[in-house]
Amino acid sequence: MTMRMLTRLVTLVLTALCGLTALCGLTALAGCSSADDGAESVARPVSTDEAQQLATVRFKLFEQGSVPVTVAAKTAEGDVGLQGWVDYRSQLGYAQLTQQGTSNRAVLWSGSTAGVHASQPDALGNPALPIPAVNETGWSAQGLGSTTDALPQLLKVLAALGTDRPDNPMLLQQTGALWLRDDTFDGQTVHVFATPPSDSVAEGQSNVAVDPDASGVRLWVTDEGRLVQAEIRASSQWSTVQFGAESGPTLTAPGISAQ
Description:
This protein is an alpha+beta fold. It has a single domain, classed as outer membrane lipoprotein receptor (LolB), chain A. Helix content is 20%, strand content 31%. It is built from six helices and twelve strands. It has helices at residues 3-18, 48-55, 57-64, 150-159, 169-174, 198-202, and strands at residues 44-45, 66-75, 78-87, 92-98, 105-109, 113-118, 140-143, 178-185, 188-194, 217-222, 227-234, 237-243. The chain has a twelve-stranded antiparallel β-sheet with strand order 1-8-9-10-11-12-2-3-4-5-6-7. The two termini are 15 Å apart.
């Protein structure tokens, strides 16, 4: 894809992504708690053992590779549903967009770029494979770096959740990781954490005050350290992501780079 083509597609997709309307909201996800549930729980800094557990969560996503995801995204224009996969090894995501009253679409994204094209879902509600070549007609694309819209921000954060090495547990403690509460998910006990505020990590701040609202990401983690659900704040809106336990298909898309 030439730079001229990409620039043109960036302009086209900004309208496409921002105009999405809702079919499913946060309450449509069975077995999960909303961002406001447990508001009376007393948040506290993570313990040493909890920091060790939290430090491996993102690495476990990378080890899983392609992870099934179901997303209920909150945007200024309404709620948007997505279902598909994020491949944390190839750093690509591919999901069917669920919207009311419009044609079916799928979105393909990396850490820096997103593209949308017309797509009929398969029998399970996922986008059909293989992924069409991104230099074919019918694609609209946009960069994710500068936009303030909720959905592109959410996609960027979701693509970055997996990492090829464990986090530093001591740094998680020092920069403000929090235990929020214990919860249940699909019949099992999980621990809900708030990740450190991004500015505290970037600035190397230590002993950050306990403030559950300062974090933009909350993680539902099993005793084994598997991430089953996340809440992500983008443009002041909380969206919910559920993660499947089985590995999905390896994602490759000629013409779109991960970074």
